[in-house]
Structure formats: structure tokens, C-alpha cells
Amino acid sequence: MERLIEIAGAGPAGIVAAINLSKAGYDVTVYDENPDAGHRFHGDFQGIENWSSHEDAADLLKRIGILVKPGADFIFQPYKKITVFDSNLNMTVVRCERPFFYLVERGTGPGSLDSMLLKACLDAGAKVVFNKKVDMLKRGGIVGIGPKAADAVARGIIFNTTMEDTAAVILDDRLAPKGYAYLLIHGGKGTIAACIFREFKREKECFERTLQAFQRVFPAVNIKGAKEFGGYGNFFFGKPVFENGKYYVGEAAGLQDCLWGFGMRYAMASGYLAAKSIIEGIDYASLLKKELLPMQRTALVNRFLFERLGNKGYAYFIRRFSSGNPVEELRRHYNPSFFKPLLYPIAAWRYKSRLIDKGCHAGDCACVWCRCGSKENPC
Ligand SMILES: Cc1cc2nc3c(=O)[nH]c(=O)nc-3n(C[C@H](O)[C@H](O)[C@H](O)COP(=O)(O)OP(=O)(O)OC[C@H]3O[C@@H](n4cnc5c(N)ncnc54)[C@H](O)[C@@H]3O)c2cc1C
Questions:
Q1: Tens of pLDDT along 142-186?
Q2: Cα of 106 from ligand 1 centre, angstroms
Q3: 5-32 core/surface letters (b: 16 or more CB in 10 A; e: else)
Q4: By alpha-carbon position, which residue is closest to atom 26 of ligand 1?
Q5: How far lies 105's CA from each of 46, 77, 109, 112, 256, in Å?
């Protein structure tokens, strides 16, 4: 591969690839169609989950070239307590020594994950060009252009509050069909959202019910200065992750947590693996197959099983989850056991992504997202 690398997309996946390649001496340019990194987000809080792997998320960041310093220039806050509600709003407080997740802010603001990654990328020597949409990478490169279809939809608000730092979840299909409603508060700012996997047309109603439910269980939330946000996530299997010199990373490769939409870990890890593949000449697909695909396939089986639970089943799940070591219990569910691979073909058949692959997959196709044959983009 040439020492010159072009990357489409300044999301976590593309930027982590850029950081690692620049540090290895490559001449890297990242292009993003938006005016800043994190533009698709709105200052909402998200969690980097800490249960799918033995490797702590803080150690993962270090391994992939991102230094998390104490009192760092971005929010990276461990949460060791989650309050979980069932559909009758019965409350269970779940605690664990190991953080469930690390809270980060997404968007263009100064303390966000996206701003931190952008700075690290520039410090590593990469060039970043904003307001530049990439349709083709004629010399190959890395494609990290995010989701292309909605398999999960989130709708919510960010707001100011005087309530203490809190993480809470409600499992109720009336609020978030086959997903979850969540509240995250950190340092006087909060996020409330419904993350839904079905009935997308009901997203507004789902969010309104979510808001009412959280205001009922936490009267102290006292929301001020609310701003709305929304977004979607996409996961799929089977499209080539490396084709015609192009490495697909993050959600552009379909890499996403199929159970609950925690895609940041997949995005950053795949960006790192694409860089590793280029630097060390190792097959990218094999790296993904070893590190991320077993977990993602298991997450799809988990989604298949989770969708079968319904409100009564969620209450059972909460009881199981809260007894013993909850992070360990979740990790057990993410590990490909003997049983889960057997269920994968059924889950894959049952759960198809809304994305239809229109790729031509021709040997000379340079499109980052194939639209060959379309009038706007003849190859
Ligand atoms: C509301 C919401 C809440 C979420 N909560 C969580 C959470 O709590 N935990 C978690 O782990 N994950 C969460 N996710 C998922 C997570 O944010 C994504 O999986 C992750 O950001 C994917 O990273 P990426 O780099 O693949 O893509 P993105 O972050 O989407 O970045 C893609 C970039 O490519 C740019 N781009 C697109 N097309 C082009 C083009 N043609 N040319 C140039 N640039 C282009 C875009 O502007 C964007 O900057 C959430 C997602 C949403 C929407």
C-alpha cells in the first residue's frame, strides 16, 4: 500500500485509523462532508460499554493509541451503578466494582470524544479536510462514513439539571419497542432518550412516554433548557470489509452492537485494525474475524433472544442481571458459547438489516458507497 492514505469520514472509526497510520509515518488526509468532527451528534451523552470483553474500555483506548489522562481534556467518566426499571417502574439498583460503561459526550463541543479524537489526530500529523464529501477513493483508502440505514433509532433531549450524576434504564416496549429508554446525567447536564428497534414511526410518542416515565421516577430531574436530538444506527453482515483497496471501518462496515447499539467500541477497534492491517500487512478481514466478528454475531443472537422476552421477560432479565456480578453476567452473554453459534443462522435469517446492498462489487469500482450505474455517479 502507498504511504499516502485517504480516509473518508472523521468519525471515531476513521479518526482512530488516521491516528495510528500517522504515528506510523503515513501521510494521511481525512475528509468529512460536515463542517466539524462529531457534527452528527448534539452534545448528548453516550456510553462506551465495558462488558463485552475482558479488556477494560480504558485499556482498549490505550491499546489503540488514545491516551486517557486523569482529569483529561474530555469527559470519560466511569459509571459503576445503574438504576434499572421494569415496565411497572419497579426499581432495581445494580452496582459493580468494574464500571458498566464510561460516559462520553458526543458532538462538536470542547469536552466531547469527537473533539478529543480530532485533536489527537491533528497532533499525530494527519490532515483533516471538512466540508468535503467523498464519493470515490480511486487509489483506495479507508471508508468510515457511518450508518447507511436505520436498524435502530434514538430520539431524545439534552438538558441542564441539578440532579446528581445518574445512569438509569427502563425496559418497556411501550416506551422503547425491543430497545430501552435511558437517562444519563453528568456534571449538571443530562440526556434522556428512547432507543427503539421496532415501530420507528412511533419514535415521537415513544420519546414522550420515556420523558414522562423518567420525570415520574426521578421528580428531582427538573429539566431546564431542553434541546432535541435524534439519530440512527446500522448493522449488517456479509458485505466485504476490504474491496478494491478500500478498507471499511465502523458502521460503514456494518460493525455495530446488534443488541443495544453500543457501536463506539466497534468503530474505534475496527479503525485501529484497519491501520494495523496496512502497517503490518496483515489481512484486515482476518483481524476482524478474530477480534470483533464473534462478539457481533453473538450480539445478533442476543438480539434475537431479547426480542422474544417482552415486558415480563425483561423483568426476569433484570432480576438475573442484578444478582451476582452484573458486568460478568453481561460478558457471559456476549461470549460465543457452544449454544449461541448454533442459533446464529436462525438469528441471521430472522433479523435482516434494513440496508439493501446495491454494491456492484466490480473489480475496479472506486465508490466509497457504491452507486455505480446511477446517473449521478457513473463509475
Ligand atoms: C443517538 C445515538 C446514541 C448512541 N449511543 C451510543 C452509546 O451510548 N454507546 C455506543 O457505543 N454507541 C452509541 N451510538 C452509536 C455510535 O455513536 C456509532 O456506532 C459510532 O459513532 C460509529 O462511528 P463511525 O466512525 O463508524 O461513524 P460516524 O460516527 O457516523 O462517523 C462517520 C463520519 O463520516 C462522515 N461522512 C459520511 N459520509 C461521508 C462522505 N461521503 N464523505 C466524507 N465524510 C462522510 C460523517 O459526517 C461522519 O462524521 C449511538 C448512536 C446514536 C445515533
A1: 999 999 999 999 999 999 999 999 999 999 999 999 999 999 999
A2: 10
A3: bbbbbbbbbbbbbbbbbbbbebebebbb
A4: 250
A5: 6, 10, 8, 5, 19
CA angle 129, 132, 136 (to 5 degrees): 110
Name the residue at shortest CA distance from atom 21 of ligand 1: 264
Using alpha carbons, list the distances in angstroms from residue 92 to 81, 82, 165, 278. 10, 8, 17, 47
Chain centroid, CA 94 distance in Å: 23
Q: Which domains does the chain have, with CATH numbers?
A: 4-41+54-70+109-149+234-350 (3.50.50.60), 152-233 (3.30.9.10)
Indicate whether 206 pLDDT > 60.
Answer: yes
Closest CA to 14 of 292, 250, 276, 366: 250
Count each helix (H run) and each strand (E run) in the chain, helices first: 9, 16
Shortest-distance atom of ligand 1 to CA 270: 26
What's the CA-to-centroid distance between 146 and ligand 1, angstroms? 5
Which residue owns the Cα nearest ligand 1 atom 9?
262
**Which H or E run includes 233?**
strand 224-233
Q: Whose CA is nearest to atom 27 of ligand 1?
A: 146
Q: What is the mean pLDDT of residues 249-257?
A: 97
The whole-angstrom separation of Cα 200 and Cα 1 is 42
The answer to whether the predicted template modeling score (pTM) of the entire model surpasses 0.70 is: yes
**What span, in angstroms and rounded, lies between the C-alpha atoms of 299 and 320?**
18
Quote the ligand 1 centre to 259 CA distance (angstroms): 17
